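Q: Here's a chain of 292 amino acids. Please give me its 3D structure as tokens.
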Amino acid sequence: MDAFTIKDLENLSGIKAHTIRIWEQRYSFLKPKRTQTNIRYYTNKELKNILNISLLHKFGYRISHIDKMDEQELMEKIISLSQAQAQQERIANELIQHMVDLELDKFECVLDNYIMTRGIDKTITQIIFPFLDRIGVLWQTNHINPTLEHLVSNIIRQKIIVGIEGVVSHLESKKTILLFLPEGEHHELGLLYLYYLLKMRGIKVLYVGANISLSDVEYICKMKKPDELYTHLTCITGSFSLEKFLARVHQRIPNIPLTISGQLARSNVKKIPSSVNFKRSLAEVMEYISRL
């Protein structure tokens, strides 16, 4: 994987495309290439540069100062950042860099080291989910090789499952929530993360998994009578219509509220049934869970 659009850089770094273009004109650290049709694209090297530079810039360094740093000084400054948020973003950047370079052993090693020092709980909340949130757009737009996506996903999946199995909650709730992904949706990591968070709150979870037909969800609802439904939509294959999906859920399971998070939850939907709630950010998801 060695060709990113300026929009990819914006999504991964948090730096607006307009700002990236200005930096290209004024400084030397970004040197995009051009396709035969004169479309700008960026290599792995440019991606790494923008991730490192955006991190230093966010935590107080001037771009003009950063531009004068050599690679060694740049990395020394990044490592020296003492703020907890900066440390977490640095590690998420490392995961992205190892992912695009197919350095899977190093990718897993970063996660394992954080788990050893901070525990699986903080690794999931501080590192894994922010990482998934940043690269979710790449998966949604197919700007990442599917094989690479599967390799990385399986590593993370193993870590989250270990976290779920190890949860011992002192809280107790009478609520039961059914977690599922509709047909065509195979990106399970966000939903597993929800499983983890709900179990931490002492909430009973019916985890159905990925690529589940609505008729199966309806059958389980009739048998187990959950209090709520929850799905996390990242990127659904085929001609999926979110509005039609919402209408079908409301028609077939009208008395059980449905909550939706993930990339597709940020879509513009004209008709939203009263039983459906969207959580468009991690902060909204966390607030929802805290109220259960």
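Q: Can you summarize the key feature?
A: The longest helix spans residues 104-140.
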